[in-house]
Amino acid sequence: MAITGRQRELLDQWFPGAAVARDHSWGLVGTTVLELTHEGARYIVKAADDKDHHLAREVHAHREWLAPWASLGRAPQLVHADEDAKLLVTRYLPGTLVEGSADESRQEVYFQAGELLARLHAQFAVEDAHFEAKANAKSLWWLNRPNRIAVEDAARLRAMIEAWPVPASVLVPTHGDWQPRNWLVHEGQVRVIDFGRSELRPAFTDFARLSVQQFRADPLLERSFLAGYGEDPRESRAWQRNLVREAIGTVSWAYQVGDTAFEEQGRRMIADVLVA
């Protein structure tokens, strides 16, 4: 487990004599995720490295946005956080990961996931005149980074982005990676983890992962999700721009971290948006 001396010092202070029960680290990024036991209780520790820019978002989400879920036991409860040390501790949240399980194809899971997401989004909304321009700039930045996007496809994508309008956007608290790999099921109840991509964005951005994965495979899951959410916020032009940005970000980030399966998904996403 790769944690710094300061992180270890804080953990010893907060949980003297704690034992590591399991290492849940993903391996593709520089964040160590540990399950600790201390005085009969279980905790999840996230310890980020110097390159990380996600942990601060997660701390902010826990402090400011997650009460509608955590109060119902649908998200982990924050126990300790030290942003300077890039260390976060939450109570262990029981549940079985939805991704790769039979629950990934159950309509009831998607109905609940839609309900939960609506609770998060409904907390407040702000208008932002610069979101679209910033999102376009980030996509162009990704296109200029090393990647395996075909030269002709990259040129088409760049020209497309540069021609887009930049209207004002309505932003809400979003999860940022809303999909079954961040959902748990415990006694029939859907719960949520991993808030490192939480940020103010348009509500429809939280539909992006599902739309190119589970909804594509089974439209009934999309219907159940929308029934739980209560509406469909995907305005066509803004949604299409978001799909292009997601495709570029997916294939570029996956190449950067060496996730070949995710990179292949990004290639399919780019093919889809270019056809569209």
TrEMBL record:
InterPro entries xref list: Aminoglycoside_PTrfase (IPR002575), Kinase-like_dom_sf (IPR011009)
Source species, domain of life: Bacteria
Organism for this UniProt entry: Amycolatopsis acidicola
Molecular function (Gene Ontology), one example: transferase activity
Residues in Aminoglycoside phosphotransferase domain copies: 35-239
Record Gene3D superfamilies: 3.90.1200.10
A Pfam family reported for this protein in Swiss-Prot or TrEMBL: APH
Name of the molecule in the record: Aminoglycoside phosphotransferase family protein
